[in-house]
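Hey, resending since the last one bounced:
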Amino acid sequence: MNDTLIANDRHQARAAFRSGWWYHWGPQAWIDMWMSKRMLVERAMPIVTHTLLPILRLSGDPEEVDEGFQAIKHHREVVRWTDSPREKWRKRYGNFVRETEWALLELCRHFPRKQYEEIVIGTCVSTARETTADFIEMMNSMSEKNKGKTDIRAEPGRVQKFIFDTFNPAGFLTGPAEMRDINMVEGSMTMYVPDCAWHTCAAQNTLPLDDQLPAEGCQLICKGAFEALFNGEDGDLRMEFEPHLPETSCTVRMRWK
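The structure tokens again:
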């Protein structure tokens, strides 16, 4: 009973926060708006149109593929200049998730699971290394920036939480997140995402499977690709994603030493 009450209180607090001015117009909203255009629209969306769609046309009936894609594009939300920064981010992210999920669900019909996963994750990793090398380098430089620090904390301090909540560079991918623990000596941090943006930006009734969470992209585009990119081989950073499906929350663990 107490757990239920705590969960309800947290849900109400998140709902209140998301209805406030700071959430829609604050610094993080502007960062996410800019990053969504640069990273999702300009660099990630071509994965669907330039790679997955051509594979689908070669693997099945090209006309059916194009008809299906046009049908899912019908749900695309138009980003208007009057929208708040947060709303522009939500629409762009929702459009990306909706069309990516459709392409993945179609693709997995034509290939064995292992080969399908290799195609998707491999495409995302190679594309990211080509188009977002600066972002990858920034993430991998965490160990250099934190060398020599001796601050050991089981939980982040108020200043750390404020900075993280206001200028989270990964916020455009996850939505609002919480820094749960940090240890600068061991080089580790845990981030908790209560309602991942991958599951919440697109209206459920517009998704290819309107009775299920968009899990394919969650497992492959997000978890699979990021764990492959940040595996400690090209830098010190290692990332581990733990989606709590069928819930919308996720735990992200990072180590950089």
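The chain has 13 helices and five strands.

Sorry for the duplicate.
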